[in-house]
Each structure stands twice: as C-alpha cells, then as structure tokens.
Amino acid sequence: MADLVADVWEVMSTARTIRRFTDEPVGDDVLGRCLEAATWAPSGANAQAWRFVVLRSPEQRAVVAQAASQALTVIEEAYSLTRPAADDDSHRARNDRATYELHDRAGEFTSVLFVQRRLRLASDMLLGGSIFPAMQNFLLAARAQGLGACLTSWASYGGEPLLRDAIGVPEDWMLAGHVVVGWPKGRHGPVRRRPWQTAVNADRWDAPAPGIT
Ligand SMILES: Cc1cc2nc3c(=O)[nH]c(=O)nc-3n(C[C@H](O)[C@H](O)[C@H](O)COP(=O)(O)O)c2cc1C
C-alpha cells in the first residue's frame, strides 16, 4: 500500500532519502505527476530551459549502473565508506548497507536526469538555481505519492561523459542532477536536521535572530 500524504508540511518533513526499492515498476501515471510538478518550479525569467530525461531502457540503465559504480568509488574515498560487517546492526551500518544496495542495484531502477541549458551571462550557480527547485518539486511529488527517491551524484565524476554520450546531451546543456525513483522497501520517515535556528541570522553574518520562532 503506497504511503500517500497530502499535507505539504508532512510531505516536506518526511521526504527522506530512500535507497532501497522493491521490484515493482514505477508507473507512467505517478512518474508523470512527479515530472509535471517539476515543471511547476520557478526558473529565472520563467525560461524553463530544462529537460528531464527518464532513464529506464535496459541500455540506459546499464549506463546508469556504470556511472553509479564510478561515483561509489569517489564516495567511498570522500566519506571513508566501507561495506559493513554482516553482524554489524548499528544505525551507521544499516545506512551504509542501504547506500551500497542502491549503488549495487543502480541498473535495476528508473531514474531521471535533470538537464539545464546554459544561458549567456549566467553563472553555473545561477543556472543551478533555475533547475534545483524543479528537482525538489519532483522529490516532493514523489513523496506525496508514496514513492521513494534518492538524489545522486552519478551524473558527476566519471558518470558525466558516460551519460552525456549515451543520451546525446548537447554541449551547451549542463547535467544538473540525477534522481533514482521507485517504490520504497522501507518506510518514509522524518528528515534529520540541525535545529533550523542554527542556520538563521538577522541582518549580519554572526547575529542570531532570537525573535523569529
Ligand atoms: C547533490 C546531492 C548528491 C547526492 N548524491 C548521492 C549519491 O551519490 N548517493 C547517495 O546514496 N546519496 C546521495 N545523496 C543523498 C544525500 O546523502 C542525502 O540527501 C542526505 O544524506 C540527507 O539525507 P535525507 O535526504 O534522508 O534527509 C545526494 C544528495 C544531494 C543533495
């Protein structure tokens, strides 16, 4: 039974990353809703200079699996990640096991590549601001429908040329991000974040904002 949620606050606060998926395919109807929600996001000058490429043919999944494997090598080094021992049942080990499961099974899932056209004069960061909201809308729409999703770095590192080539992305389009989507094996749950007040300042960099509660 899909864990459907309509309340926007609950959607946002429980859209935790899901890395373990069942074998049930993601239907065109639910996927279409996520993609439509992505297009409701703002972009600079409402340019909507984006493209969302759904990757689900066996050929493209094989490329995604290759990209995931390359990213995993980088992630392992960056975060000192290693495969947990079979008898380790700690929180960390369970998380790490899910990360390995996602990367090992990468070729079995549906995923979406988010691509942004370069625009004259706009910095990469500014262009990112025109497509990251679309990715977040996609994630929230996935959560609302009970789907699980994981943002990945597979379109970076060595995966970028592989995906560019396999999909035929033109030179003047940037690979902005990649999201795996599927029906969760586990459950959605609350996101774990530092108290929001620790990220907020009033007027000056070091000034707290005690009045805002
Ligand atoms: C830009 C970006 C890249 C990410 N890349 C990966 C990835 O390659 N593999 C992975 O397992 N998770 C990846 N994640 C998921 C993050 O690890 C996850 O969002 C973060 O730990 C917060 O966890 P939560 O979403 O469950 O709250 C990525 C997230 C972002 C925003």
UniProtKB/TrEMBL annotation:
Pfam families: Nitroreductase. It comes from the Bacteria. It comes from Mycolicibacterium arabiense. The keyword Cell membrane does not apply. Signal peptide: none annotated. InterPro entries: Nitroreductase, Nitroreductase-like, Nitroreductase/BluB. GO terms for molecular function: oxidoreductase activity. This is Nitroreductase. Residues 16-183 form the Nitroreductase domain. Keywords: Flavoprotein, FMN, Oxidoreductase.
